[in-house]
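Exercise 7. Predict the joint structure of the components listed below.
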Amino acid sequence: MEEKKEDLNFEDAMKQLEEIANVLENGNLSLDESVKKFEEGMKLSKKCNNFLDQAEKKITMLINNGDEVKEEDFVPKED
Amino acid sequence: MEYNPITVTDLNKYIKSKIDSDEMLNSVLVKGEISNFKNHYTGHMYFTLKDENSLIKCVMFKSYTTHLSFMPKDGMKVIILGSVSVFERDGVYQIYAKAMKQDGLGSLYEAYEKLKAKLSAEGLFDESHKQKIPFMPKTIGVLTSNTGAVIRDIINVSTRRNPNVHIRLYPVPVQGAGAAEKIAEGIEFMNKNNLADVLIIGRGGGSLEDLWPFNEEIVARAIYNSKIPIISAVGHETDFTIADFVADLRAPTPSAAAELAVANIDDVKNTLFLYNTRYKNALKKKLQVMRLAFEKCMARQAFKNPTQKINEQYMVIDMKVKAMQNKIQLKLKEERTKFVKQVSKLDSLSPLKTLLRGYSIVTDKNDKIIKSVNDLKENQDINIRLSDGEKQARIL
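Solution:
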């Protein structure tokens, strides 16, 4: 299933990754729960990676002429 | 007619003496903008002072320039104290400056301090109001000039840290009249249309006047009201503007702002990789612990020889059954002996033997044994029991 880019809050995801690591390292879970957490963590980190790779480079400039706003690619001029 | 011309030197001398004798020109206070500034290697400064319509040459000798608290430069507005005199060789009059101060600075500083105090009292600088800069913003909004080094630096630093970042520039003038309004408008526009996850507003270094738009109330309020977190990067590290105080985060330079806004993707990927490693290690360790516990368990007697315990229990049961049987047999024997004894005793006491000898037992209809004639009435039915049976009878 393809994840939508929008539904990932990266900061929360990172927090969750840390929590999962702590819980797993604690070792208090049953084996079943450990495997479940492990899979959850791997899935989430993969999701984060995808998020990073999916973003595309864009440098744009908004042009606001009062009535309407256009957006176009922007390339800084050399001095 | 004979001409009597004077020399150029004489003329200039005359003009000089006229000017030098003028009390007003001996000590003038002039304001204007510096242009064509030259700091000569001898330590003297040569420049032109101008306003919209006119200009005058100025010179400041080394003995005076050493007392200056700032380095004059082109475009700077100054007030000069000096005298006007003529440089005879070139036939030019000029100001011989003795002292110089920056014009307008006093009032600007005053305005700055006043606004700062006012906004501070209102709580615009409160830490509690500051928003967190998102860790991995998708879109970085930038409000600055679309020309010059600032936007270029921001793009360079951002894309170096994360090649996939989206930078959205909203070009605004960053100095001069109307700049503050445009900057405020830009902040509001980005907010209204939700065009960025974080905003960088800034400009490069300049004079206090150049930075002035970032000291204006309209910009301060726009920053304060922004729902999008704002990083300010105005001027150099030593420049502090009101915008810096209101912003959620102040960056010393535009490049630093880009570093604060854009996480280094290599670091982030590395962190993600570390998590994967941590998970794998943790699970591996869990498995090891489980295996160890399993092996320890399997090493116990019960698992090594699982029927032994059962056999032991069988033996116990057998023993118990045997003991039970013994006890029952003993009891049976005892009871039998006791029974035989009782029977022989009963036999010797039995009334049957007495009946055989010719006795009988008389009972009434309730089977009550009648032992006296007084208990008998006329016509009473009785029962007579003899050794070989019973018969009914009636009393006469």
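Discussion. Chain B has a mean pLDDT of 90.
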